[in-house]
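Today's session is about reading a structure prediction critically. Students often jump straight to the picture, but the first step is always the sequence itself: look for stretches that repeat, for charged clusters, for runs of hydrophobic residues. Only then move on to the predicted structure, which in these notes is written as discrete structure tokens rather than atom positions. Here is the chain we will use throughout the hour.
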Amino acid sequence: MVVDLGAIRHNVRTLRALTGVASMTVVKADGYGHGMVEAAGAARAAGSEWVGVATIDEALALRAAGDEGRLLCWLTVPGEDWAAAIDAGVDVTAYTVAELDEIAATGRPARVQLKVDTGLSRGGAALADWSAVVARARAGERDGSWRVTGVWSHLAASDEPSHPANDAQERAFREALEVAESAGLAPEVRHLANSAAGILRPSSRFDLVRFGLASYGLDPAPGETPDLGLRPAMTVRARLAMVKPIAAGAGVSYGHTWHADTDTTVGLVPVGYGDGIPRHASNAAHVLVDGKQRAMRGRVCMDQFVVDLDGDLPAPGTEVLILGPGTHGEPTAQDWAEAAGTISYEIVTRIGGRMRRRTVGA
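Below is the predicted structure for this chain, in token form.
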């Protein structure tokens, strides 16, 4: 696997120029499979004011790697090591009064952001509890427990611009901001938009846009996103382990879910679901071998899958281009997502296992 850090820098700069507000590059889940530390460094170099992760552990790993910029994390459970995050200068997120009480109990002056649930029905303070959370947050500011640096929420359907949830959630967020401001909170940043909303919904940009998938050059709203010139950063390659002829009627891989219609040749690609190749793409995906698209035949196995070489006999060791930007005719992460019935986020995030990651463009 090769990750082009120059592409990430290009994408971050492009997205920042588009929105005209501050940006947060999201590098959770090992940078969506691209390498958390490396992706964060590329984002910082491109001017991203913030980096975002899900967990405290991810935030501390970035700090240990030398990252010193503004850094937000947002997914915790009771009993988390809030003190370690605060000591490392991480902005932490609270959803509830109970979480704010835990933060206060550390005795350390913190930077806290408040998340409100505007309709995703996932993390964040319920609207019914929002006034109480805001009141506790303001009280903590008064007694020096923390400074509230942000108020934010997350959209449920930003990849569908006409979905009614988008208008409803933006209204709810504006109302939540009014409650916070009425209580005396003056956060540095108010943020609602993720990649799709940041590109497609200017009214949702507020002070900051959280760019995740788009930072890596992938389309957060296929069929809706204009061509911004984003460059996919990940390319995944393997080499043929074996090439051999099979006769008409031969079954291929576990369960013989595919049989050859005619005499043909097949190639063995030595990566499988243990390395993030989705099993649900069995008999549906393609790869590029010797300049031609080759269909996957049979089920993806833990360590390998088989492709139809249509009678050709490329030598063992020939490069297999599994996914990439698509500039050479290879499938993209979106192509794999469609073959597997999923989203490109899942494709790139799962790639790994025994694959070695190499960065270029540093």
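Discussion point for the tutorial: The chain has two domains: 2-216, 234-360.
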